[in-house]
Amino acid sequence: MIKAVMIDDELHCLNALDFMIKEYCPEVQVLEKCQSAENGIKAIEKWKPDLIFLDIEMPFMNGFELLEQLPEISFAIIFTTSYDQYAIKAIRFSALDYLMKPIEPGELVNAVKKVKEQRHLPFAEQFQMLLKKVQGKDVIFNKIAVPTSEGFELILADQVIRCEADNNYTHIFLKHNLKITACRTLKEMQEQIQDFRYFLRVHNSHIVNLNEVSKYIRGEGGYLVMSDGSSVNVSKSRKDSLLKLF
């Protein structure tokens, strides 16, 4: 069983999530539901959970401020939030997980599945990155946190040549013939790197670094030759958008 604590100032959100967990994630045991960050900290100290569902927007102390109060974070976290573009960007950047309200059962199941499959708890560095991103909105980051089966890796964004989908994983091809497999879908990777303007999704299965394109070969959609010699198909529907950038 995965021992869990839920923290959200809105009772109806707590009850709705609790119902969905009972219905769709029987492997999760909710030990306590907390309506404030202060009570959440007490519950974490009391139960030492494996997982917390943490709302970001709460009065007096938000979810990020709660994390800053903890001496260590020895559990997995799934953030829950209404649409907050900046907070979501910070969470994506740190390679952590979140659920958008109103929470969909399928998204909940996928998030819990990731917690079950991860070999390591999130690293302290991920939370440091998250909090720095939240606190310093003008800080420019040039690295990407890539979650892997072993934990996560920090890579320079401009070292990425291309990303290729492989079901629920993404293969990231780097300069110097390096390759990393991320435990993220291509859609999730696209959301994470969208602030780096030189990345473009050119196919359902491919994102490319436009700075690493060597050649475009015409065709119905055509294809790209990348700096490492690899070829990447361009879908017909994305061809015009690509060519406009050139």
SSE arrangement:
Elements: E1 2-7, H1 11-24, E2 28-34, H2 37-47, E3 51-55, H3 63-69, E4 76-81, H4 85-93, E5 97-100, H5 105-117, H6 124-135, E6 143-148, E7 151-156, E8 160-166, E9 169-174, E10 178-182, H7 186-192, E11 199-203, E12 206-209, E13 213-217, E14 223-226, E15 231-233, H8 236-245
Parallel strand pairs: 1-2, 1-3, 3-4, 4-5
Antiparallel strand pairs: 6-7, 8-9, 8-12, 9-10, 11-12, 13-14, 14-15
Helix pairs in contact: 4-6
Protein name: LytTR family DNA-binding domain-containing protein
Domain HTH LytTR-type: 144-246
Pfam family, one: Response_reg
Account of the 3D structure:
The structure is a single chain. The protein has 246 residues and is of the alpha/beta class. The protein folds into 2 domains: 2-135, Response regulator (Rossmann fold, 3-Layer(aba) Sandwich), CATH 3.40.50; 153-245, LytTr DNA-binding domain (OB fold (Dihydrolipoamide Acetyltransferase, E2P)), CATH 2.40.50. Helix content is 34%, strand content 32%. It contains 8 helices and 15 strands. It has helices spanning 11-24, 37-47, 63-69, 85-93, 105-117, 124-135, 186-192, 236-245; strands at residues 2-7, 28-34, 51-55, 76-81, 97-100, 143-148, 151-156, 160-166, 169-174, 178-182, 199-203, 206-209, 213-217, 223-226, 231-233. Strand 6 (143-148) and strand 7 (151-156) form a beta hairpin. The radius of gyration is 20 Å and the shape is elongated. The model has no long low-confidence stretch (mean pLDDT 90). GO terms for molecular function: DNA binding; phosphorelay response regulator activity. InterPro entries: CheY-like_superfamily (IPR011006), LytR-like (IPR046947), LytTR_DNA-bd_dom (IPR007492), Sig_transdc_resp-reg_receiver (IPR001789). The modification 4-aspartylphosphate is found at residue 55. Residues 3-116 form the Response regulatory domain.
